[in-house]
Write a structure and sequence with these properties.
This protein is mainly α. The chain has a single domain, classed as Amino acid/polyamine transporter I (Up-down Bundle). A two-stranded antiparallel sheet has the order 1-2. A hairpin with a 2-residue loop joins strand 1 and strand 2. Helix 17 runs antiparallel to helix 18. The longest helix has 37 residues. It is globular, with a radius of gyration of 20 Å.
Length: 442
Amino acid sequence: MPTFELIKYLEFFRWLNHSVFALPATILFAAAAVILTFKTGFIQVRAFPRFIHMIIHGVQHEKGSHPRTINPFHALFTAMATTIGMGNIVVPPIAIIAGGPGALFWMIIYIFFGSVTKLTEVSFALDTRIETPRGIIGGPIQYLKSISSLLAYWYGFVIVFLFVSWSSLQSNTLANIAAQENIPHWAVGLFLSVILLAVLNGGAQRVGNVASRLVPLMFVLYVSFSLLILLKDPIALWSALCLVCRSVLHPSAAIGGFAGATMLRAMNSGFSRAVFVTEAGLGTSSIAHATANTEKPLDQGILAMGAMIADLFLVCISGFLILVTGAWMVVGDNVGSTLIYDAFKQHAPAMGSIVLLMSITLFVLTTVIGNGFNGVQSFGALTNYRFTRWYVAFTVIVVFLGALSPVPLVWEIQDTLLYLVAIPNLLGLLLLAFKRPSVLKY
């Protein structure tokens, strides 16, 4: 496609996202999270002891569960495989560049209130799931059907493309970073595609087993080296914290690559990027949770809600990394995908960039696997598990091609898809919360 055509489409989707969807989406995400928080009596605070109890003592399993269900913690790690991914590394810097340091504050605020949105999604996903000989059908498509078939099919049609788009972006991001270590783009695409195909062919059990092993490892690798950078200069860390606080009500002036921001812009950037990181409001993480053999739907919801602490922690680390190192002032074509890498390479110990590449590879790998699994489940819910092999093949091909292509246009398109997915999901959740409040009773 000629360059001027790409620019034309890029500008169209950029206008659509910033001028049409941005403000309504910010209001809808925030309103749903706040309403559900008050509806449940701040369950994210009240149920925290229950979350700790389940982490220590385990979750009560469902008796006589379907053979295709998986351990509740494997379901949790499968869901976390998509939320604890490249988004935690790439997105906070993007939010700060677009909305200023204050955007980090709004990301934290949304994670706190949005945790109840995720609890609601997961609880209703388990409450409404159905069992078929071919597998479990559960998640947003299923719980939206109990409200409106129009909302369900609207959501389902868009989400199968959103998952593929996400996986393509993950592949492209890893390829851009690996290229700085002289690793060819095609090698990254082939590596991800082969592993994705092998894992998805193993079904939910294999996805859960792989995710439960890789998620803790990548978390520890990334956090350890990040803390070495942040704690090396406590004064710079304190200054960065003060900058975030000052920027909440008094957005920073334009500086370096930052084009300046208003409070509304910082809030919109923080909320929308927090949604991308946590998936709270999109319903996507509830798809994996719907396969858990949990006796009480709300218990799995509490487990999912508590797990957002990991998202909060990683968002703070990534955001403060680029503020402490000054990397947020750098301008570049791949600024979103390489800012943290540059910060690691310049400020971490000798092996910093290598360790980051290893942890990022795990982040991307688990996210692509999680997205692939969720895409298959969503496609199966739409088609009653017919033609899923074709969908898997399509996903694998797109992941490979994603590593080879520049995708600024795809970033804007996936933002559009994200908004189109969130609208039916949030409307359906609010209706369900008031129609069937007993599911959320704690």
